[in-house]
Amino acid sequence: MEVIRLNRDCLELLDQTSLPHKEEWLVFRDYREVVKAIKDMKVRGAPILGVVGAMSIYLAYLEYKGKTDLDAGVMEAFNIISSARPTARELALRAKEVLDVIINYRDLQVSDIFEVVEKIATEGYIISSRMIAQAFTLLKPRSRVLTHCNSGSLAVMGEGTALGVIKEGYKRGLVEVVYINETRPLLQGSRLTSYELKKESIPYRVIVDSSAPYLMSKGLVDIVIVGADRISMKGDVANKIGTYSLAVSAAYNGIPFIVVAPSVTFDPSIREGNDIIIEERDESEVLYFNGNPVAPSDSRAVNYAFDVTPHQLITAIVTEEKIIYPSSEGRL
């Protein structure tokens, strides 16, 4: 599924806020507009945000190339880009890779900088494929899988992380049906994950987020598979809000809880989950639905975009390199 197009003079993105009912492409030539699109969730998913971050620095480079304030300009751009969504590690990480090339290699041409961005995107496809290949030993035939948010082609270069595993598992007879949490308040599950599974003709059922524990208690779920935006060195995982409660319910019901994420999701500067910066989004996402208020006019809301699942609740973390089993002592 094509969701991003890299061009020498612009970035094109499939507007994910219009899905599943309308497929609309947006064109960006100014990194500031890309940042707004990131904040508005027109593009989302930690791995693909990494590519978008890299391309955004490239657009800033085009703006300041040949000017005396090149270094200051791209550095300012990096600070703006990296702070757009602070929880996802790859956004800042990949933007920094391109920034370092621009600052440290003065003799490079525009085509060379663009090639760095393309290599980052290509690497994403390779990593996705390797993660999927690692995960099959964790799936039993005809598994009933529960997933949260969206971790497929809309979030990753390639087939995806968690959803990529689910897609390939279905092709190999290892997945019978997929239960998709709506993933409130922006409904990335019911809007985006169902959109991807429908295109693949994979059986799925959309469920209310709060009903997942009940399905587990009824024996309808064999395994939970989710993605991740940042992972501490203890193995604590930051993912879309609602993931933690799924892990608690899975542990109580004796159901494997699997995280699929690139190895760069591990942050060497973060020892444990409490150190991860959690993005808090605008209250209106909770207080309004389709522009209509769902609470009294003077209501306030708390709208954390992510939560942190302790390593003790995680059965395994699958990367492109290996399957990691977090220990109860927090040593990977």
Q: How confident is the prediction overall: mean pLDDT?
A: 96
Rg from Cα: 20 Å
The parts where pLDDT drops under 50 for at least 5 residues are none
Estimated structural class: alpha/beta
Identify the overall geometry: globular
Number of helices: 10
- Beta percentage is 15-25%
Biggest β-sheet strands, sense, barrel: 7 strands, mixed
Strand order of the largest sheet: 6-5-4-7-10-14-15
Total beta strands? 15
* Helix content bin: 25-40%
The N- and C-terminal alpha carbons lie at a distance of: 34 Å
Could you give the order of the helices and strands? EEEHHHHHEHEHEHEEEHEHEEEEE
How would you characterize this protein structure?
This protein has 332 residues and is of the alpha/beta class. Helices cover 37% and strands 16% of the residues. The protein has helices at 31-39, 46-64, 70-82, 89-104, 110-134, 162-171, 188-199, 212-217, 243-252, 284-287; strands at residues 4-6, 11-14, 25-28, 143-147, 175-181, 204-207, 223-226, 230-231, 237-240, 257-260, 288-289, 292-293, 306-309, 316-318, 323-324. It has a seven-stranded mixed β-sheet with strand order 6-5-4-7-10-14-15, with helices on both faces. Strands 1-2-3 form a three-stranded antiparallel β-sheet, covered by helices on one side. A hairpin with a 4-residue loop joins strand 1 and strand 2 (11-14). Helix 2 (46-64) packs antiparallel against helix 3 (70-82), helix 2 (46-64) runs antiparallel to helix 5 and helix 3 runs antiparallel to helix 4 (89-104). The radius of gyration is 20 Å and the shape is globular. The two termini are 34 Å apart. The model has no long low-confidence stretch (mean pLDDT 96).
